[in-house]
Input
Amino acid sequence: MELVVQVGDIAKWQGDGIVVNLFEGVTEPKGATGAVDKSLKGLLTKLIAQGELKGKLGSATIVHTHDRLPADRVCVVGLGKPEEFTLDRARQAAANGVKALRDAGAKKIATIIHGAGVGGLDASRAAQANAEGIVMGLWQFRKYHSDNSEVKELDRVVLLERDAAQARTMRDAVRRGRIIGEATNRARDLANEPGNTATPTYLANVAKAIAKKYALEFFVIDRAQAKRLGMGAFLGVAQGSDEPPAIIVLRYWGAGKKAKPGLGIVGKAITFDSGGISIKPSENMQDMKGDMSGGAAVIAAMQAIAQLKPRINVTGIVPATENLPSGKAYKPGDILRAANGKTIEVVSTDAEGRLILADALVYATQTLKLAPVVDAATLTGAMVIALGHHRTGVFSNDKELTDLLFQIGEETGEKNWAMPMDPEYREQIQSDWADLKNTGGRPAGSITGAWFIRSFVGETPWAHLDIAGSVGMMAGSKEIGYKNKWGNGTPTRTFINLALALAKK
Output
């Protein structure tokens, strides 16, 4: 799909459809929407009076112009209440408008930049958010459908800006938004691949191709190398599968190799999770193909970081393996030794994500000396109970990093929420037989899981993102605006924007 910025008047644009907007409570539209309404002889005002156009967030109403405008259709998207309008609502509106016109059969459309006018947002930030919303909103995963003849797609989307002097700035912003949106879609593609395709080797090959295209350093720690590095926790999980495990490493040297090693982003990639010997119930087990969503986000974020070129060094680490039962599989009661020497009693083989993260984080903090380090994992069902599907739980040993992640979440729509890390919770993972046990039971399961991970980062500033609910891999998630209901790419944009924010410091 072509995505371009042009100077022009939305009411004079010729094509299959145009997108304008409306705040809730408005009775007489102004600005671009008002200009379109005037050309339509007050039709939009009439529809508002009749209650057909309400401006509610998430709404997208299509009106045929009957040759009163050069465009065939007008889509009016709702922005919600003016006092509640945010950058992310602009992103949602952009997605809702293009999706509605696409589904109506349009091929070439134009849209105003939601939020840049009466919305009162910074024009450049609004343009970037609009581009992100458009690219992410139009994402579809139809790879395994044999008949896609009825699938509708847009060929061209034009973002119209009336001020020629602003156009160049808008083009740069839209380019950034497209890069970030496409990276998120890359993470979605990976998360939606079935487990028989997206093996650890497959993920490694995808990362290798990205590294080659965007000049990233790339290498893989295989089973033999992991053994030499003492990664007993990672290898314990991997031993039940015939698929070769891989710790995938991508490095971006934006500040140069003489500078500090920089930011580390680490993503859990259990490419299929049966629960191992502690096998899961069969119902919904197919969804466990998405247990590699954290790793998918890391790979995708590294792609965008390489394109955006911030002056910071960033390393992405993805421990990837299957977690399956077999005659070789690790068992409850086994004791594993991680790369930092800590011993772990295995209480449940279904608490495997924290085990592979343990060795990856030791490698990130002790071997590569990365700081800060942020990991993402579909770690616990308890996170869904705590925060549902709208926020990611943040567990950290560093308040400044926590606050930054919160701010990024509010801007990106990948919303984050700080969770408690009181030391009393750590007592639940103390073992009678080893230094730690890999689960502290059902009470505060997300917190005790985070405490387990914290045991492998030392004093390095660190945050753990539990994305089990927010990534949309469990029952109950819904499609909203630019967010698809399954494997939505969280926290790809959080990782990207964290790198950009730290680079400015």
In short: The longest strand covers residues 313-323. DSSP finds 14 helices and 18 strands in the chain.
